[in-house]
Write a structure and sequence with these properties.
Blueprint lengths: L14 H16 L5 E5 L4 H6 L4 E2 L6 E5 L4
Antiparallel strand pairs: 1-3, 2-3
Length: 71
């Protein structure tokens, strides 16, 4: 997946959270234990991704990653 966007007229309705929820359900079901998922968060999108367990990858960047937790 490369880009996900919600048109400004439709923002604030929980669509981004629904999209991320589906992506996370897929990752939880299909990603191997060694999976490392990274993303680039533009602007306040970092706050949305943080709600799903993504964390900053470096102090000066807004790149974020998700790593499956051990079972």
């Amino acid at each position: 997946m490369v880009d996900i966007a919600v048109l400004p007229a439709h923002q604030g309705r929980g669509l981004g959270k629904r999209i991320m929820g589906e992506i996370m359900r897929y990752l939880e079901a299909e990603a191997p234990e060694s999976a490392y998922v990274s993303l680039i968060a533009d602007g306040p999108a970092k706050d949305l991704y943080a709600q799903f367990g993504f964390v900053p990858t470096a102090p000066l960047s807004i790149g974020m990653a998700w790593k499956r937790q051990g079972s």
